[in-house]
Amino acid sequence: MSATSAPPPGPDASTSVPPSVRAAASWSWRLLAITGALIVIGYLAVVFKVIVVPVAIALMLTVLLTPVVRFCEKRLHFSRALACAAALVALVVVVLALVAAAGGSIASGFADLKDQAQAGFDEFMDWLRTGPLHLDSHDITKYVNTLTTSLSSNTSGWVSGALGAAVTVGHVAAGTLIALFCTFFFLHDGRSIWAWLVGLLPRASRDRVHQAGRRGIVTLSAYTRTQILVALVDAVGIGLGALILRVPLALPLAILVFVGSFVPIVGAVVTGAVAVAVALVANGWVSALIMLGVVLLVQQIEGHVLQPFLMGHAVSLHPVAVLLSVAAASFVGGIVGALFAVPLVAVLNTVTLYLHGHDKFPDLGTDDHLTIRGRDTAADDGGGRLPPMVAVAERDLPAGGDAGEPA
Q: In which domain, by residue range, is 268 found?
């Protein structure tokens, strides 16, 4: 009897899977890892928002106040620390002046607006009686009592809301102090802090990350200054319209529009609706329609003239990207998330494009380098190891020998 022949070997698992499936699997686990990392980063940002938000605000204030610091140093011959302190004090004075002016306007105009609102409510009640609904006084009283009972039954909710507001005020105060503190040191020692952060990275990637960071700062600076100018135009346009129409609280409305304009798309719609509502309550339908026309005109000028002309190439984001980023950020972080969505996406877009070989700001060049532990980052760009003698000498350097040295 002949020996039984061995069965032929089965196909190898690595060769039996089509290349397209292997490529899809490779992309899938990498995308899952990136998504997981982004979720963890977003979660940590929300948990530590009392720290993250003030630092983000400090970065935007830093790029805004840097020209002021340079002016004080070059024109007024201030020292670096004095120039940073002067710029910060000037910012605080301007903000406090706006708050004081808005508070005075609210205090003087709120009484008139309250009387006009009461008159409008009485007119609405008369319309319920004489209009197509034909409600009598008994029905109206019943609905008012039901509403009053519902509000009274939620007293605990109002109390908890008040306690939450008190906690929020405490967080805002702490965040304000952190933002001012960080802004001063970002202005004074920003390059040293950045050098310390870059020094934590591998040597081969330090110079490339530094060059990408420079372009990210340019993008953030362009966005911040342009958005302030756009918000100022919106506030002046709508504020003047409210002032001409004799709408109460014109100055607080202008400040509200200025702040709301930093949230793209949504902020303009909400603050414009508030201006129209105040005009409706104070002056009636005709004034409200004219105010609506003013709001629409200002928004059209912003969307078709200011944004494309001023933002230009520095912050080149498609409107769909802006809308989706604002929606996603507001879902994760609320109003604060919507406020920082566009600058974050714009900076990430610029940095990512540079790291992939597309430089949006070639005029910046690559001549600026950091010095970390006595070594220029340009020398590390090749990715090679240090010669043994140099490595030993660098290892024996005393700690704290350079302002940008990692601890």
A: 205-362
